[in-house]
Amino acid sequence: MTTLLAHRHSQAALAHKAPPAAVIARSLAGMATVGAELDRSGTVMNFARGKTLFEEGDRAGYVFKVASGALRSVRLLADGRRYVIKFLLPGDFFGFVPNAEYPYSVEAVGDATVVRYARQAFEGVLDRNPQASRTFFNAVCKELSAAQERLLVMGRKTAEERLASFLIAMAERGKPGQAVELPMNRGDIADYLGLTVETVSRLLTRFRQRGLIDLPDNHSVMLRDHEGLTDLSLGEAA
Amino acid sequence: MTTLLAHRHSQAALAHKAPPAAVIARSLAGMATVGAELDRSGTVMNFARGKTLFEEGDRAGYVFKVASGALRSVRLLADGRRYVIKFLLPGDFFGFVPNAEYPYSVEAVGDATVVRYARQAFEGVLDRNPQASRTFFNAVCKELSAAQERLLVMGRKTAEERLASFLIAMAERGKPGQAVELPMNRGDIADYLGLTVETVSRLLTRFRQRGLIDLPDNHSVMLRDHEGLTDLSLGEAA
DNA sequence: CGCGCGCTTGACTAACTTCAAAGATGGTGG
DNA sequence: CCACCATCTTTGAAGTTAGTCAAGCGCGCG
After folding, report:
1. pLDDT computed for residue A108 by the predictor
2. Which of B104, B156, B163, B230 to mutate: most A Cβ within 10 Å?
3. For residue A84, which of A47, A191, B19, B178 is within the disulfide window of CB 3.0 to 4.6 Å?
């Protein structure tokens, strides 16, 4: 029930392994003036693959930013059914919650580095800095919009369309023209799309056989027919 | 493609039919100081059942608050599949979007009254009033949290569990102990839960046969066994 | 009164899951 | 460096849930 914080490091101790908080905070999108103030409260932390940052029900005392690696936010049902709410990739913020407790757990998909900010300090910045306030407001609106887009996917799209949507969304976060990195495993993808591992695996095979993708290894995908995938993802396939 | 605005009324012309904007704005939860400033930009508008406030792709020039009635935000796929993102009930704000265009349409489920605020004016208030800014930030965080909760429902719950979740959520918005009003029809519920009309109808019948609910008429439900429904909704049923 | 729309019910179908097992992969220690 | 083992992935066959197609019912409105 308590927050499991692996590898607690001071900024100084970490300097040679990961960028210091100051450097990372400076990268806060469009928030040059916010960076300095957040710096003082940011702590860089490393988490090994599979480690838990916090669990559903933990007191929500912090907000985080992903510096490197990948994480997943996860919810569980009583009988063990699992749902991956979101994959958290470099640049993503998380931990903005309306209640005193986190409504989901966050785990490291691969080794990951995050910056942790005390929620109180973060909210202080919001109160004193209208521009920061506005920026984060917009960021949360964008998150909301993305969640609603995903609701459409989960509610009305077939397994094929879901996977195609996922691959395209992942491609948009990576470098154009290159193989898409999938830090998560098949099970994570399945739980993100509301499918089973078997279905995800079968669909990837089918996409490959149709020439839509290549699968150089288990953690990368080359999109060979981006347009075909897009059509599939929109439910416009023949 | 253009915004369809039915029944455009001035505040004065409407005064006898619906509360004036001033009265409504005053009800903004925890925002006494914001009310006065928003008043000046708020316009009360009525929409008849089925009318469209705006469509997917329209320029997002306004934010809205529901004063009375019910609306639905809707997305469509190319082949006509429909998904209801959210039912908008009295007190709900909507229209906070990160882009220049609305990503969904909003239609009146039954006759509805909303207050419309120019987005620019609204954002002005946010910039000048840190407390309002904070309040709306929290509101959007809450929305996001609700959307993520719904993602779990859509991704991992069975049809039965989805419908039970829906009935309980609707009950929480109504008056305790009373019949739950369902302003929307079966098709809307189906599109909200990612099911078909037939499945929703069959499940309601099944719930009634099991003594979980009563169906006094097509637009109300009495929850007879709240605990049984809750167990169902959590996937903890025998 | 009769028409239309929304709701219900039934029989059949399809998509996805479940169960089962074999095949790859990758990390670790000898 | 290689062998081993756990874990992840793929594939096949059978099963289940919810969808599709079709028809009848009932309420409300003109």
Report:
1. 97
2. B156
3. A191
